[in-house]
Amino acid sequence: QVQLVESGGGLVQAGDSLRLSCTTSESSFGTYTMGWFRQAPGKEREFVAAIRTSSHTYYADSVKGRFTISRGNVRNTIYLQMDTLKPEDTAVYYCGASRAVLSAIRDPRMYLHWGQGTQVTISS
């Protein structure tokens, strides 16, 4: 079982930035597509961003140009840099690991492993 641990959430004001981290001790981490999803109260888990083993990145339209997903220099870590945050970005953010084909990386059902989530709250 791959264990993922998210960190970096918090309470900030609209327009501020946050950087989320997702780490694992799993040695095969680099062979997974890694994704960030979020879930607001009463809503389904939604795709935010993903990075493939090729380092190609993909974003939801709602965050494109404001969020950046990356693999860190620190082994087995990915980041989600979130800039120009909006109140509607408020949610629990989860990182996940997937072996899905490209056409399926936005589907949370295709992710095999998940972290426990980190709360992000944006005040207006």
Describe the structure.
The structure is a single chain. By secondary structure, the chain is mostly beta strands. 0% of the residues lie in helices and 47% in strands. The protein is built from no helices and eleven strands. A hairpin with a 5-residue loop joins β5 and β6 (57-59). The protein is globular, with a radius of gyration of 13 Å. The mean pLDDT is 94.
Question: What is the averaged pLDDT score?
Answer: 94
State the low-pLDDT regions, or none. none
Name the quaternary structure.
Answer: single chain
Strand content: over 45%
Percent helix: under 10%
Class from secondary-structure proportions: mainly beta
Q: Given the structure, what is the number of helices?
A: 0
Measured between the Cα atoms of the first and last residue, the distance is 39 Å
Q: Could you give the count of β-strands?
A: 11
Query: Main beta sheet: strand number and arrangement?
Result: 7 strands, mixed
Shape: globular
Cα-based radius of gyration, to the nearest Å: 13 Å
Order of helices and strands: EEEEEEEEEEE
